[in-house]
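Re: guanosine-5'-monophosphate structure - here you go.
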Amino acid sequence: TPGSPYPLDRSNLFARIILGELPAAKVWESDLALAFLDINPAAPGHTLLVPKGSFASLMDLPDDLSAHLGRVLPRLCRAVKETTGADGINVIVNNGAAAGQVIFHVHYHIIPRFVQDGYRW
Ligand code: 5GP
């Protein structure tokens, strides 16, 4: 992995994006993490934050990677909110197929929300 001590599984889509083998619209990057736009956004600006290491779910993450993601999340959410003019932000992690996970490289969904969504849990 460029900059990261963790191995990447080349058969995984997000690992290949991290390795630069597949294109993505990058939003932010550090040695340990990458944020890029979701290809099928739930709302404009829908961003995915991934660690630079092949870990399937949140429960598999080593402490330093989860701490890094936790540290950058507020900043990234602020940037997404300001850039999109969103009124609110959903942060969602699907862990496991039963929870709706499709790509088994852990990712935080950062989803801009708007008052006119009329969204209710
Ligand atoms: P999950 O259901 O695993 O939490 O979410 C996977 C997300 O990855 C979906 O929101 C989907 O739109 C997104 N996605 C799938 N394939 C690609 C891709 O090739 N590039 C990007 N940027 N996002 C993708």
